[in-house]
Amino acid sequence: MILLNVTLLSNLVSPSNIEKLPLSFRTCIVNLVPKLLKPTLNLVPYNVQKKGILTALHSVFKEAIADDDFEFLQDRWLHISVTDLALNWLISFDNGQLIMDNNGQQVNADVSFSASSEDLLLIAGRKEDPDTLFFQRRLKIEGDTELGLEVKNLIDALDIEQLPSLVHKVVDGFATILQQSQTKN
């Protein structure tokens, strides 16, 4: 049932269907989604978030993990903050796997990336360059600059076409809606 709903969602947000929607409706969707997600995500227990995020990261970065491309994160921590959704995660690499802190564990981040969900979606959908967002102060990178660049370069090297097709369609669709609503405002 969940797969059917995700498949339906991916078809609804396909670029060809998005272009058929009036701009005002697209803009409404873009403004409404974070407002609906924030209270919902706050109810999701951290361990469930952790399992979902690690599963997604291992799927997206399967090849990079197998090639030990994350070795630079060994014994170092990356903090990711989705500012408008009040979500914060600490990620590292150990024994050939991406790991996350245990919520509440005292861990100091070596580098921190923070941005709104919209900007992170634009980056994920390859609709906006992280460097552009950084210089516009919409993507903040604080801490170890060299580590931050290694993380950014690894993300830039990711081939979005390698994502599972369903994930690719949903990310691309929502990023397209967001991009179109921003450029026409």
What would you say this structure looks like, in words?
By secondary structure, this protein is an alpha+beta fold. The chain has a single domain, classed as Nonspecific Lipid-transfer Protein, Chain A (2-Layer Sandwich), CATH 3.30.1050.10. The protein contains nine helices and five strands, in the order H-H-H-H-H-E-E-E-E-H-H-E-H-H. Strands 3-2-1-4-5 form a five-stranded mixed sheet. The longest helix is centred in the N-terminal third of the chain and has 21 residues, at 23-43. It is globular. The N and C termini lie far apart (37 Å). Residues 1-6 have low confidence and may be disordered.
Question: What shape does the CA trace take?
Answer: globular
Write the H/E string, N to C: HHHHHEEEEHHEHH
Strand content: 5-15%
Low-confidence stretches: 1-6
Helix content: 55-70%
Short description:
The chain is α+β, with helices and mostly antiparallel strands and 185 residues long.
Secondary-structure map:
Layout: H1 2-12, H2 15-18, H3 23-43, H4 46-60, H5 62-66, E1 78-82, E2 87-94, E3 97-100, E4 111-115, H6 117-124, H7 130-135, E5 140-143, H8 145-157, H9 165-183
Parallel strand pairs: 1-4
Antiparallel strand pairs: 1-2, 2-3, 4-5
Helix pairs in contact: 1-9, 3-9, 6-9
